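For practice. Any example?
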Amino acid sequence: MTGSNLMKLTFSARSENEAFARVSVASFVAQLDPTMEELNDLKTAVSEAVTNAIIHGYDNDPSREVTIEVAIERDTVSIVISDDGNGIEDVELARQPLYTSKPELERSGMGFTIMENFMDHFEVASRVDGGTRVAMLKRIESKKALYN
């Protein structure tokens, strides 16, 4: 995105860093003066994507890294969360509500569904043993965003 305000964050794949990632993205997006609902939607989607990378992508291996890239252009926030972990064998199956590849961990299987419902655009690309990339867009309706 030309003329965008950009942020890139890389951190260890530790479950305790999920909250850090969520708050970091929220802090960066705060410059658009989003509503609490918009901010909560963004934070929840980021939380789901980061948790998926840590649990499914890396099997909780803290030596691996998750990367978040955020771009703001006018009133739109673009978020890309990526890992270079296990990848997803069948993306369409993984996107089905209630599907989980780790039922023994009592995962709800709603991560992709939540991301898709909370964002204006959502896509996932993955390759077995090649990692996963989740890209999301959210338009912020605030008056401040419209004048940037």
Notes: Helices lie at 17-29, 36-57, 91-94, 111-118, 143-146. The radius of gyration is 15 Å. The longest helix spans residues 36-57. The mean pLDDT is 87.
